Amino acid sequence: MNEVPVAHEPASPAPRDVVRHYIGDLVYGANDGLVTTFAVVSGVAGASLAPHIVLVLGVANLLADGFSMGASAYLAIRSSASADGVTRGVREPLAHAAATFAAFFGAGAIPLVGYVLGGSSFAASAAVTGITMFAAGAGRALVTPRGWFRCGLEMLAVGATAAAVAYGAGALLGKWTA
């Protein structure tokens, strides 16, 4: 039974090396957390539903989808290792799963902050989420050779497109179910 080679761990305990090692999990988790949670907020706003529904659906999304993404990261690493004939221990896949879940949950909570604090402003949620999407995308430039502005716009465009789809679906379905 082969164990995880040392090369699969971060190059050093330095924060930059740790972030670089987990960058895929962090970007994937943060992007999906922001996009799917803001899509929930957008769908509720599009359907003109009560603001407290944002919290119910948003928190359910954070927990269920965050867990699903973390579990998927775990299963993907275990499956890849198995296909390569390497039997890995549970430490590395669990660390990647935890990074994915933490990034999803942390970033995904941002669109809900205004609602948690008693507000119900879709515009405020959209502004904070858009700024965060851009900043998270731009942050990729710290460990990749791409420019920060282009990285930021790319992530913002993906999130805005998903939000527009969710808002439209909410508006359409809200009319059918009213």
Describe the structure.
- The protein is mainly α.
- The chain contains 6 helices and no strands.
- The longest helix has 33 residues, at 51-83.
Task: Describe the structure using short key phrases.
178 residues; mainly alpha; disordered N terminus
SSE map:
Layout: H1 15-46, H2 51-83, H3 91-108, H4 113-116, H5 122-139, H6 148-177
Helix pairs in contact: 1-2, 1-3, 1-5, 1-6, 2-3, 5-6
Using only C-alpha atoms, the radius of gyration works out to 18 Å
Strand content: under 5%
Low-pLDDT runs of 5+ residues are 1-7
Query: Could you describe the largest sheet, including whether it forms a barrel?
Result: none
Structural class: mainly alpha
Based on Cα principal axes, name the global outline: globular
Helix and strand sequence: HHHHHH
Task: Tell me the number of helical segments per DSSP (H or I, 4 or more residues long).
Answer: 6
Instruction: Report the average pLDDT across residues.
Output: 86
Number of DSSP E strands: 0
In short:
With 178 residues, the chain is mainly alpha-helical.
